[in-house]
Amino acid sequence: MLTQETIDIIKSTVPVLEVHGKEITTVFYQLLFENHPELLNIFNHANQREGKQQTALANAVYAAAAHIDHLENILPAVKQIAQKHRALNVKPEHYPIVGENLLEAIKTVLGDAATPEIINAWAEAYGVIADAFIGVEAEMYREAENAPGGWAGFRPFVVARKVKESDVITSFYLKPRDGGAISSYLPGQYITVRVKPENQPYAQIRHYSLSAAPGGDSYRISVKRESGAPGQPDGVVSTYLHDRIYEGDVIEISAPAGSFTLDTSKSIPLVLISGGVGLTPMVSMLETVLKEQPERKVTFIHAAINESFHAMREHVEQLDASHDNLKSYICYEKPLGQVACHKTGYIDLPWLQEITSQDSDFYFCGPVPFMSAVNKALKEWGVPEERIHYEFFGPAGTL
Fold first, then answer.
1. Could you count the other beta carbons within 10 Å of the beta carbon of residue 274?
2. What digits encode the pLDDT tens for the residues 313-363?
3. What is the pLDDT of residues 224-236, one digit of tens each?
4. Where does NADP(+) bind (predicted)?
């Protein structure tokens, strides 16, 4: 339990964290990897390079400081981060290492302003926050291992099928090498892939949404080849999976995780909106609701650059043709004219108002600019916060 004095000191640092948070977390990761390079085996190097992880951690530290007297207010965020920690195999012994380097980063960035009182208060507060994470994650580890077909850590899976879905997206069907059962999952969850490309000094770990309804004897992930912007490298793991992994090869994965999941207890109309490879959790949700809630009205909207980038089009069209409760729509930014679409350009509020109803539950996923536009449109329409659901690929950000 934190003393009131400690709480007051932590609260007093909130304005400082608002200004210097990203700088502190950037220095933190530099120190962490210099002092413990082995931890590079469990971090996404691309997120580090792009600054996404530093920003996400800065936001998390800021939120913890702002709510230090009522940490229960940030429990949903803690659980979301803990899901990823469990999927990455982050363990209790990692927390003291993180704490030590975080305090050192605060001292480095703030200099003389980081008084002994501030450092001591943050050391005490970090201990409480770390204990909260460790407790939540311990339960998640137990659940993952003890679930039917569950397991601990990473388990070898064979690529049973590899299917090209579009010019940039390929699906991988994964079955356990040991022939045993596999954990079920909730539509919207992901699995975590661990590979070690020959030219990489450390293991590479990535989260990939499961792109099919649960209940089968395999997992399906649909991976976009990430091509770097001019002067930037291509995605290490996505290009490795596309170019170097074939049917019969083995990759390691951890059990399904994630808090972005479809609420099937509701019967109100459902709208699933995806941009690009953001369709992967949406297809899992679509297949699930058609199977489990055949009377529920569903609208599926997908946006892509053009038809050559559009994955699973025929599959969704077949579902539309065979289910009276489903209506699907396509929006192409720059159509090639080979396949009909319902809208050109971008998804906007007038079109959403035309094809969906305001009293729906909305789920969406895709590139951040796409999600920002959808989120803004829904809020302008007056859709309540509790009926707007979305997920970032990678570290949590803001819309």
1. 26
2. 999 999 999 999 999 999 999 999 888 999 999 999 999 999 999 999 999
3. 998 866 666 778 9
4. 276-281
Strand partners, 208: 191
Yes or no: say if 285 and 262 are a contact pair by the CB < 8 Å rule. Answer: yes
Is there a contact between 141 and 67 (Cβ–Cβ < 8 Å)?
Answer: no
Out of 29, 62, 95, 332, the active site residue is 95
Mean pLDDT for all residues in the chain: 93
Confidence of residue 56 (pLDDT cuts 50, 70, 90): confident
Domains and their CATH numbers in the chain: 4-146 (1.10.490.10), 154-257 (2.40.30.10), 270-391 (3.40.50.80)
Q: Is 280 annotated as a binding residue?
A: yes
Report yes or no: 374 and 282 within 8 Å, Cβ to Cβ: no
Instruction: Tell whether the torsion through CA atoms of 41, 44, 48 and 49 is positive or negative.
Output: positive
Question: What ranges make up the beta strands (E) of the chain?
Answer: 154-164, 169-176, 190-195, 204-209, 219-224, 250-257, 270-275, 298-304, 326-332, 343-344, 361-365, 388-391
Q: What is the pLDDT of residues 123-142, one digit of tens each?
A: 999 999 999 999 999 999 99
- The dihedral built from the CA positions of residue 140, 141, 147 and 153, taken in this order, carries a sign that is positive
Asked whether the beta carbons of 64 and 129 are under 8 A apart, the reply is: yes
* CB count in 10 Å sphere of residue 248: 9
Q: Which of 137, 287, 307, 391 is catalytic?
A: 137
23 assigned to active site: no
- Which residues are CB-contacts of 138 (< 8 A; sequence separation ≥ 6)? 92
95 in catalytic set? yes
